[in-house]
Design a protein that fits this description.
Blueprint: E1 3-6, E2 13-15, E3 28-30, H1 34-43, E4 48-52, H2 53-57, H3 63-73, E5 76-84, H4 89-108, E6 113-118, H5 130-147, E7 151-155, H6 165-172, E8 178-179, H7 183-188, H8 193-199, E9 206-209, E10 211-212, E11 217-218, H9 227-236, E12 242-245, H10 254-265
Parallel strand pairs: 1-4, 1-12, 4-5, 5-6, 6-7, 7-8, 9-12
Antiparallel strand pairs: 2-3, 10-11
């Protein structure tokens, strides 16, 4: 079982400028020096990372070099995160092309997961067909990603059309895509993370461990989420998926947050998996 760390804690989030006029070029990117961040994450004990698609794209011409770089540091690439609108039919083929490119690069770099977030919120309000359109787009994306040998999962996210438990249920009633729960986003969306995980346990191959104090994302153990209960439940269920710690948007020192979170995990039932 793996315990990795998301690199997005180590710099501000931006979107690629080309995406303003060409939707095929929209990507998330953390403004950081990737190799330095890899070394800092490894120094705290984690053995893998997840990256944004924009950071991955910097290695588009040499993905195997990224894999080699990570291996030399003692890390592997657990996953890559990408977002899309999904519901705009005219734009969808360009978005799908971009997801396919990301999946291809990620696979060559040794990744296992491609995490998909999004589902646009319309200025005019949600239309009746939006959930079914999102589900159909996710099915196409899942198929494309699987062709590259990766597992595609959907990540409910604040600011997207899937935030609340009711919205999650509505989507998963018409979509079979795997589920990557982010504990803090589930809580901030009005849900009980443990109950949601119990409900969808059989479709979870990957989980984002994140804490929430009611106002923002914080290091593990510094918020209100029952992390021990969630970890204990999944361990008791013989969960064999992957674990990733994520603490984006935290105002404190990112390296200290990484250290504190690792120390927290050493005092959970995951400690047998931490080397």
């Amino acid at each position: 079982m793996n315990v990795g760390y998301m690199t997005n804690a180590f710099g501000p989030l931006v979107g690629s400028g080309g995406g303003v006029t060409s939707i095929k070029d929209v990507r998330y990117e953390t403004m950081c020096k990737d190799e330095e961040v890899f070394r800092e994450i490894r120094s705290q004990g984690f053995n893998g990372v997840e990256m944004f698609d924009g950071n991955l794209d910097q290695f588009a011409s040499q993905p195997k070099e990224l894999k080699k770089q990570l291996q030399e540091i003692g890390l592997s690439l657990y996953g890559v995160y990408a977002g899309a609108n999904f519901i705009y039919e005219d734009a969808w083929q360009d978005e799908l092309w971009r997801i396919h490119q990301t999946a291809r690069i990620a696979a060559e770099a040794g990744a296992k997961h491609l995490v998909l977030g999004g589902g646009a919120v319309r200025a005019s309000g949600e239309e009746q067909k939006d959930i079914s359109r999102l589900a159909a787009s996710l099915a196409e994306a899942e198929s494309i990603v699987a062709q590259e040998g990766l597992i595609a999962s959907y990540h409910p996210h604040l600011g997207s059309m899937i935030e609340s438990p009711e919205q999650i249920d509505q989507l998963f009633s018409c979509s079979s895509i795997s589920f990557c729960p982010d504990l803090a986003h589930l809580a901030a969306g009005g849900g009980d993370p443990l109950e949601i995980i119990k409900k969808y346990r059989d479709r979870i191959p990957y989980i984002h461990l994140k804490d929430w104090d009611g106002e923002g994302f914080v290091p593990l153990g510094h918020g209100n989420i029952d992390l021990h209960g969630i970890i204990d439940f999944l361990e008791a269920q013989s969960y064999t998926g992957d674990w990733l710690v994520e603490i984006d948007g935290y105002a404190g020192d990112p390296l200290e947050a990484c250290k504190v979170s690792y120390e927290f995990l050493k005092n959970t039932s995951l400690n047998k998996n931490i080397k």
